[in-house]
Amino acid sequence: MWNPPYSSYLKEGMAAAWPICLGYVPIGLAFGVLAHNAGLAPWEIGLMSLFVYAGSSQFIAVSMLSNGAALIPIILTTFTVNLRHLLMSSSLAIYLQRLGVGRLSLFAYGVTDESFALNMTRFRDGGWDWRQALTLNHTANLAWIVSTIIGGYGGQFIPAGAFGIDYALPAMFICLLVFQIRGGLYVLVAVLSGLLAIAFSLLFPGNAYIVMASVTAATLGVFLLNLYGKKRESMEES
To answer: C-alpha angle 178/183/188, rounded to 5°?
Structure first.
């Protein structure tokens, strides 16, 4: 069997990452502005993006720093917000079973909401392997780090809400959601997840409602999918 050269994997992974990179740039600039206003130097912003690499957690951490929060509450809050990565990693694991610990660790570092959604779509469609997925992850990672540093240096001159920065993050997630919808069940789970997130946000403090809504809606989706599969099998047998 002919194996494509590594340059082919790199080109395909980088090409697939461009939509994510374009979404990361305005968000990264906005984060750089906020982090700068919170008292972080550009090199500190860059290190935070390198070691944390989780946009929502970084925004939350910077906001808590601005309000004088202690270290332990910041760590616990960001840990809770990032628990959703357990679900994403579990879904990706079936496509990465033959990788060693080193490559898995490198891949896991680059898993974000956006890279997960795009890689899952490519894995399901076929013709996509860990090399392209890894390239996609770290191309997006580089775009995020660079944009946050630039935001830290010059983003403070960008007025709040300019260029649609305040809408960039929701717009990117809406776009990724649309590409994930493959039938009525997916629409139902998406709508239910949104409604549950609103309801849980009114009942529970903090950001735990995001994980709670996602897990609840996904669990119901799996249950309905299995129920539909059993009914379909019984109909075919009869």
So the answer is: 80
